[in-house]
Specification:
disulfide bond, metal-binding, mainly alpha, iron, signal, disordered N terminus, two-stranded antiparallel sheet
Amino acid sequence: MKLLLCVVALVVCLIPAHSNPSKAKQLVDEAYKYSREESLSRVRREVVSPVDILRFMKQPRGGSRTAVRSADYMTQTLRLLHDRVHRLHKRSLNDLEVLSKITGCAARVEDPSCRTTQNLDKYRTASSICNNLKNPRLGASNTPFSRWLPAEYDDGVAEPIGWDLKRRKNNFLLPLVRQVSNNILATTDAGVVSDRLYTHMVTLYGQWNDHDLTFTPFSPSIRSFSNGLNCDESCERSEPCFPIPIPIGDPRRPSGKDKCIPVFRSAPVCGTGNSAFDFGGVANKREQINALTAFLDVGQVYGSEDGLALDLRNLTAEGGLLRVNQQFTDNGRELLPFSPMQDTNMCATRRRITNDTNAAEVPCDVRVDENIALTSLHTMFLREHNRLARELKRMNPRWDSETLYQEARKIMGAYSQVFVFRDYLPHIVGDAAMSSQLGRYPGYNSGVDPSIANVFATAAYRFAHLAIQPVLARPDANYRDNPRLPSVPLFKAFFTPWRVVFEGGIDPLIRGLVGRPAKLATQDHMLVDAVRERLFQFVQEMALDLASLNMQRGRDHAIPGYNAWRRFCGLSQPTNQAQLALVMNNPMLASQLLKLYGTPANIDVWLGGVAEPFVKGGRVGPLFSCLIAKQFKNVRQGDRMWYENPGVFSSSQRSVLRYASLSRIICDNTGITNVPRDPFKLISATNRLVHCSSIPRLSLSAWKERSEEMSAAIEEEMNRLSMAQQDIEGMSEILTDEDNEVTRPSMAQQDIEGMSEILTDKDNETAENWYCPPPESSSAVQKQGSRRTHGSAGHIED
């Protein structure tokens, strides 16, 4: 017997490490080619389904595609080796290193040198490589999501939760995600409750911001690597196919043999899964790729890779501008460029689905056309970049195109950081989380990992799906309903960029976002039909269900259940119906959840999070408040290029940026002349519509080149004023008015405003007033809702 084992081992060792990569590469390349040709064929035959649209949106591109292909090469090479050799006889770790180099996986994990990269102290790289000089890949694009809790794969390594429908978890079978969606999340448009505090801009800005932070690509293949199965034509689970079964009794259950919604697994990271185990190492749990950077750098405008960033720029003119549409304008204002691949790009041929005779628009993020409200935000921020670049060029005619581009991009990144922390997050995570985790900037810490957490991308930051209205309003200049441009049902606004071009431009859509309320997420009216029953439905094909997709994605990524995350956040962990009823403040909902899941521990974390009553001052419950606040705390503290980090901007520039406003960006880049001061709050007596002339402009004089002596004097004076402001801010803890609101002394403000009288440019003329006063503060709007009575609908505020 020993002799036999030795012979087998000898044979195994004689198999060259490179004997299978070529076969694996051929297998993967053929699957990719088949998938691409099949997708194009469906477009040409006008039989594109909602699943095809989702798959197109989730396709990796550029460096992301290279990373995914390398992972597929590696995985299939190891699978072929595994099929030939019993796992008892494992190859050496040296062979694993050889295969990593052959398949391209090794290049995905090697740290690049930061010594040769220019201007690292001045500008971000497109991919955020070298943001952290000690760990260059930390927070960069095409790196793994981080894990705050270990993954819980069915097999401990790579199989999704629920891969085996008969496997029990905590002694209970998991419910089908579509069944959960039907029983818990379904509502009708007639049951929608509008938010009385916040606008639809809160919802869309959240989506816009998410597209700056997270993108999880699918595998490009629609065919199983192991058996050639087409994922669209079968309900069998076979990598990368992870279909959603449709339960008996579902009104959408088809009559055919296969009764499921096709879904594809997220692409794996190189070297994760069973790879190391087959080579004598320790099994490395499967991880997923974040194709975007972890930073608030407006990557959805500029791209998260060098190649894409260059493609989005106008390199034919010396102005640092982004490319714009050469065929159409919006009343003379710029529109996003069309895709140059009109005949081969499925996105560009959506005209066959929507009767559009024009190509799709193509900024850096493939999700730009997901809905026309999102398209309008992309368009507005593209215009703002070009406006900044032109203004900087006017002030600094000697600056070259690269400097103009980078400086405008840098300002745009600061905008995002200011808006998210000052204007957006307080409405979401509530008062307690803002004060405990997201207060005053603590400074950069190279030891903080800013990488986006898997649970944040897969669950917590998908909370706003419940705040989506079933229609997109397009009011007139007076914010009244417009008979010429009536509201568009959301399901008719998916992938219809032609509406922006031919139906009034972006102005009506922006007015609709700032002038109409968000949907209020209530426990009895969670998800509108437009995204639960009609997602991406253009033809008579089965539409997608966003709730089911969210939960299936969480299971694919092996995200632990509800109680594990409540424990992580220091919250109670309910174990029975009575305790769950207390947490949810809703006995009926608790009963429904336990009928499906058996135990609170098994509840999908996305569902558990969105079902919780709101925290005080927020629009999420305690669990998601904790997770979202923790993520943004890490993003800020782990970003070397954060706008408040000394040296990133000058003191005078930081002072200007603190008073940037979304309302001013709307005024500067649309034809809208009246806006609410706070675009996230509904128009009211305390948040009136005001003319754009009363919204402070962001002066760029702090970016004007001056002599070294003048710059030093300005910097010294600004440092003095900055210290004075910090002292005054500290006094806010003890100075309160009769309503217990902070009363800030005005001396520093007067001092700063007086600076314009002593700061002069090189021609000794009075410099522009670079200080922009903050928007007028508004008193607190009366809180919406009240503590819910036993079993009643709605969320609590305290």
